């Protein structure tokens, strides 16, 4: 029997994102793409050092650590 794999989300530095000239890859909670100004406002209001590259329950916004997920959990996020 195989050991179940653990899946991790990448974390992205908020500081690095804010240095980008045009932030065009963030969405709101309804999956509506945010405009650059809206994305900046959201990132600043979150007061986070990192954001996860995907929906990550248990993500640590301070250290950028994903707790890890089973394959089944990861695929259903
Ligand atoms: Zn995660």
Write up what this structure looks like.
This protein is of the alpha+beta class and 77 residues long. It has one domain. Helices cover 27% and strands 13% of the residues. The protein has 3 helices and 4 strands; from the N terminus they run ββααββα. It has helices at 14-18, 36-46, 71-75; strands at 6-7, 11-13, 50-52, 69-70. A two-stranded antiparallel ribbon has the order 1-4. Strands 2-3 form a two-stranded antiparallel ribbon. The longest helix has 11 residues, at 36-46. The protein is elongated, with a radius of gyration of 14 Å. The chain starts with 5 loop residues before the first strand and ends with a helix. 12% of the residues are buried. The model has no long low-confidence stretch (mean pLDDT 94). It binds zinc ion. The site of zinc ion has 7 residues, from loops.
């Amino acid at each position: 029997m195989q050991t179940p794999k653990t899946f991790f989300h990448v974390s992205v530095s908020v500081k690095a994102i804010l240095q980008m000239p045009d932030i065009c890859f963030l969405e709101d909670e309804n999956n509506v793409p945010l405009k650059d100004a809206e994305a900046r406002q959201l990132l600043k209001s979150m007061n986070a050092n990192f954001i996860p590259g995907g929906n990550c329950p248990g993500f640590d916004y301070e250290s950028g650590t994903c707790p890890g997920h089973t394959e089944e959990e990861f695929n259903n996020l």
